[in-house]
Amino acid sequence: MRIYIAQDSAAVSVGADALAAAVTRAAPEATLVRTGARGLYWLEPMLEVESAGARLAFGPLAPDEAAGVLAAVRAGDAARHPRHVGTMDALLAQQGQQRITFARCGVIAPTDWDDFVAHGGGAGLRAARAMAPQAVVDAVKASGLRGRGGAGFPAGIKWQTVKDAASGTKVVVCNADEGDSGTFADRMLMEGDPLTLLEGMAIAAHAVGATRGYIYLRSEYPDARRTLLAALSVARAHGLLGGETGLDIELRIGAGAYIAGEETSLLESLEGKRGQVRAKPPLPAVSGFLGRPTLVNNVMTLATVPAILARGAARYAELGIGRSRGTITLQLSGNVKRPGLYELPFGATLRHLIEGLGGGSSSGRPVRAVQVGGPLGAYLADAQLDTPIGYEEIAQARGMLGHGGVVVFDDSVDMAEQARFAMEFCDAESCGKCTPCRVGSVRAQEVIDRIIAGEQRDANLQLLRELCDTMIHGSLCAHGGMAPFPVLSALDLFPEDFETARSAP
Ligand SMILES: Cc1cc2nc3c(=O)[nH]c(=O)nc-3n(C[C@H](O)[C@H](O)[C@H](O)COP(=O)(O)O)c2cc1C
Ligand code: SF4
Q1: Measured from the CB, is residue 484 less than 6 Å from ligand 2?
Q2: Ligand 1 pocket: which of 218, 253, 259, 262 to mutate (most atoms <8 Å of CB)?
Q3: Whole-angstrom Cα distance, residue 447 to residue 214?
Q4: Alpha helix locations (H) across 241-390?
Q5: 8 A C-beta contact, residue 215 and residue 181
Q6: What rounded mean pLDDT belongs to the chain?
Q7: How do beta strands 248-253 and 212-217 pair?
Q8: 149 lines ligand 1 (CB under 6 A)
Q9: How many CA atoms lie within 13 A of 81 on its CB side?
Q10: 405: helix, coil or strand?
Q11: For residue 84, what is the DSSP state?
Q12: 216-235 per-position pLDDT tens digit
């Protein structure tokens, strides 16, 4: 009997280790495989049992339910068990998920090379190494892949810039800082299928001519750190890195600053300096790490490249809408019944994600606001939930897709408090280099406090809008430049929360 239980940190946080221990006690003869998570977090802790070639899933399970589940499987009675949820493949297909970036996550043992290869790992790199670098860049362009770190910049164009830069030494940097609230896709991938990320980096290095690679990982991800270190050794042992490949990758750990996720600030930190934003130009693609042409891409961007090379760019580009091609790994959290990772082709609506797949609010109260794209993303109201998920489509609804985090709030949310929080966050995480962000975010909190207290409301509301305008147009980077968006969306869509003394202390 083969049993699979996630060792992903979110699954462990709700009891996956205790479930694994109970399974070992109940079935000492079974082979227990610890995997990454499937991303269906409302079912965790969950186990899958191999039976007649299928993997039957059960969850959420308390440790003392493990023996009963295994007895039901042995008796051929699995389907009647109250915690049986069918097979993961069927469940994901029923949800309309198309696991391309996450094809192996939750399926394989994360750093088991044979398991990785048996499930198609390495095929993208083999294809890429048989191609000329320019052909690889062309394939990435043809796939329509856009950077998943936030800005949605076309990956192929950035790769071309680095490839064309005249310099002997080029660098590939994976941005694994994942600081946005409500996001966890990078972590899941690094804990569940880290070899795919390394494969993507190796393909990128081949395409742009880089010989050095760095993964910049946030310090709050100790489990990802362990898995990545193990994966780096495995990758070197099997010729994915090191030796004749002429490429090695080093793991570097950040010191806990949100702004270090901004690519130039990340490069400063990687160089051992304080993580402050650099003025652009020059772009990192031209002059980045230690002045060398540097390709900075998000974990999701790089981890999607192997599938594109293995399956063909056209197949990836077939999915999606408008200029948003392929799939997007949406991370649904907050006040929602079925939080988790949903990899869907671009084009599904936010309503389908939140109500159809997410099951609406976990409190049972009406959903009132949704924040898409992290702490700098605008809030959306019910009227905007029919927006199809795509970079331009969400932008037209005055939102931002960002890294794909979707945080749900019910009608007990106080949007004036949320607006204040956006500025508090901007202030706490500002790198301090420019005045509109460093000082503006503090002043904005004071103004919002006065509005909440009912002091000269109209004058202060106007002042707040002027301050937001100054931050949008005067900030050096998107941290200060976007922090006003959640505030303005709260003012525009939920003005009643600023009119009553609802938030007054
Ligand atoms: C304040 C701020 C924080 C950011 N944080 C992250 C982050 O945590 N992870 C990330 O990949 N990109 C982050 N970005 C975007 C990066 O600057 C950069 O665009 C990205 O790493 C490029 O990779 P991509 O093209 O693959 O998206 C952030 C940007 C800003 C302005
Ligand atoms: S906007 Fe804020 S985070 Fe960005 S450079 Fe200016 S002070 Fe630094």
Answers
A1: no
A2: 262
A3: 42
A4: 263-270, 299-311, 313-317, 350-351
A5: no
A6: 96
A7: parallel
A8: yes
A9: 24
A10: strand
A11: E
A12: 999 999 999 999 999 999 99
**From CA 310, how far away is CA 481, in angstroms rounded?**
38
- Starting at the edge strand that comes first in sequence, how are the strands of the sheet with 47-51 ordered? 31-35, 2-6, 47-51, 54-58, 84-87
Token digits of residue 367:
């959903």
pLDDT digits (tens, 9 = 90+) for 69-113: 999 999 999 999 999 999 999 999 999 999 999 999 999 999 999
**Is the shortest distance between the CB of 148 and ligand 1 below 6 Å?**
yes
Say how far apart CA 277 and CA 267 lie, in whole Å: 9
Cis amide prior to 60 (ω within 30 degrees): yes
Question: Please, are residues 241 and 212 in contact by the beta-carbon 8 Å criterion?
Answer: no
How far apart are alpha carbons 62 and 67 in whole angstroms? 10
The answer to whether residues 145 and 305 touch, using CB atoms and an 8 Å cutoff, is: yes
* Residue nearest (by alpha carbon) to ligand 2 atom 6: 434
Listed in order, strand segments (DSSP E) in 193-288 are: 212-217, 248-253
* Per-residue pLDDT at 168: 79
**Closest atom of ligand 2 relative to the 433 alpha carbon:** 7
Whole-prediction pTM: 0.97
Token readout for 14 is: 């709700």
Q: How far apart are CA 190 and CA 172, in angstroms?
A: 17
Contact present, 344 and 46 (Cβ < 8 Å): no
338 lines ligand 2 (CB under 6 A): no
Residue entry with tokens 């079974």: 30
Judging by DSSP bridges, how do beta strands 405-410 and 367-372 pair with one another? antiparallel
Alpha-carbon Rg of the chain, whole angstroms? 23
Residue nearest to atom 28 of ligand 1 (CA): 262
Cα(422) to ligand 2 centroid in Å equals 15
Kindly write down the DSSP assignment for every residue of 3-35, as one continuous string: EEEE--HHHHHTTHHHHHHHHHHH-TTSEEEEE
In short, whether 377's Cβ falls inside 6 Å of ligand 1 is: no
Cβ contact 40:52 at 8 Å: no
The interaxial angle of helices 222-237 and 185-192, nearest 10 deg, is: 40
**Residue 51: per-residue pLDDT:** 86
Q: What is each CA distance from 67 to 25, 49, 70, 128, 183, in whole angstroms?
A: 9, 12, 5, 47, 34
